[in-house]
Amino acid sequence: MPTDDDRAHERETSNFQTFRECLSDATIRKLAIQPTKAKKSNKKNKLGRKNAIKPVVVTQPKSQHGEEGEQDTNNDAEGLADFTDYLASEIFSSFPPDLRLLSHAAVKEDVALKERYTDPLPNHIVEALVAPLPPSVPDSLTSYNVVPSSSDVANFLAPVLSAYCAAVTAPPPIWISTRTTYCELCLREWIPLTYHHLIPRAVHAKALKRGWHTEDVLNSVAWLCRACHSFVHGVAGNEELAREWYTVDLLAERDDVQKWVRWVGRVRWKSR
Predict the structure, then answer these.
(1) Which pLDDT tens digit goes with each residue over 182-213?
(2) CA 68, CA 125: separation in Å to the nearest integer?
(3) In this structure, are residues 242 and 213 in contact, taking their beta carbons and an 8 Å threshold?
(4) Are 190 and 223 in contact (CB under 8 A)?
(5) Do residue 83 and residue 201 come from a single domain?
(6) In which band, very low, low, confident or very high, does the pLDDT at 78 lie, cut at 50, 70 and 90?
(7) Eight-class DSSP state of 178
(8) Peptide bond preceding 120: is omega within 30 degrees of 0, i.e. cis?
(9) Integer Cα distance of 107 and 70 in angstroms
């Protein structure tokens, strides 16, 4: 029978994986290449927004001579995985125990804990969590051009911390029975998953009124890793997602999605 220590270890391991995904998503957004103006395609299912996120290229830290190191594009995913894994370990290890073990059950039982780690996190809480970070964290973030200076670390980590707290304290979704063990786009297994409303809730009323969908399919969801979830919302607005990209198969037909999943699918975490 699992002991309390065993359960605490499992919770901390699961929370670390969630935090690593939140940090990875934020890092990818910071390092994403801004695309040039896209040409229109005649094929409807090839359309994408002009500001669609492109796969990232991790910039190597500068050498002692001030020159940027070269990195083969095929190694970008592996380099990002190693960088994020190391950074997540350094940051997560500095958290107080109550944050490392945060859960929905914990905040239900402890009102003070819920108020302390509410989403979004208050500035004074973020500052208190960032203060004990080892010097390697701001050094790494600035070396890889994720933040311009060490004074920007708190601003960068604030939404990461808020996303982590929101994720680990969220109640089980009503669609838990449809949960998969892998991201339905990039197919990575044993990675923290989020549920994506294939027909965004913000346009449910419009979808019914205009006859885009019937009520029985409004709550259809796909289980996606955090990176793929963010990418999907970056390539199309809510109305376009509801009208044109309302199934995993339709999303997977897009050229930009195919390019993305080929790249992000190579981002593999090492065992902690």
Answers:
(1) 999 999 987 889 999 999 999 999 999 999 98
(2) 36
(3) yes
(4) no
(5) no
(6) confident
(7) G
(8) yes
(9) 46
Q: For residue 40, what is the DSSP state?
A: P
In a domain, 271, yes or no: no
Higher-confidence position of 179 and 100: 100
Instruction: Please give the single-letter amino acid code of residue 105.
Output: A
Q: Tell me, yes or no, whether 11 and 39 share the same domain.
A: yes
CA distances from 211 to 148, 206, 250 (A): 48, 8, 19
Output the CA–CA distances (angstroms, integers) from residue 251 to 214, 228, 260, 270, in the order listed. Answer: 20, 11, 11, 29
Domain coverage including residue 243 = 176-264
Per DSSP, helices labelled H in the chain are 4-31, 76-93, 97-100, 104-109, 111-116, 123-130, 136-143, 153-169, 204-209, 226-235, 238-244, 248-253, 255-264
pTM given for the model: 0.71
What tens digit of pLDDT does each residue of 222-253 get? 999 999 999 999 999 999 999 999 999 999 99
| Rounded Cα distance, 121 and 105, in Å | 19
The CA distances from residue 131 to 19, 93, 134, 153, 192, in Å, are: 18, 13, 9, 10, 27
Decide: residue 138, CB within 10 A, 0-12 exposed, 13-18 middle, 19+ buried.
Answer: buried
Q: What is the DSSP letter of 223?
A: E
Question: Which residue type occupies 86?
Answer: Y
Q: Determine, yes or no, domain membership for 25.
A: yes
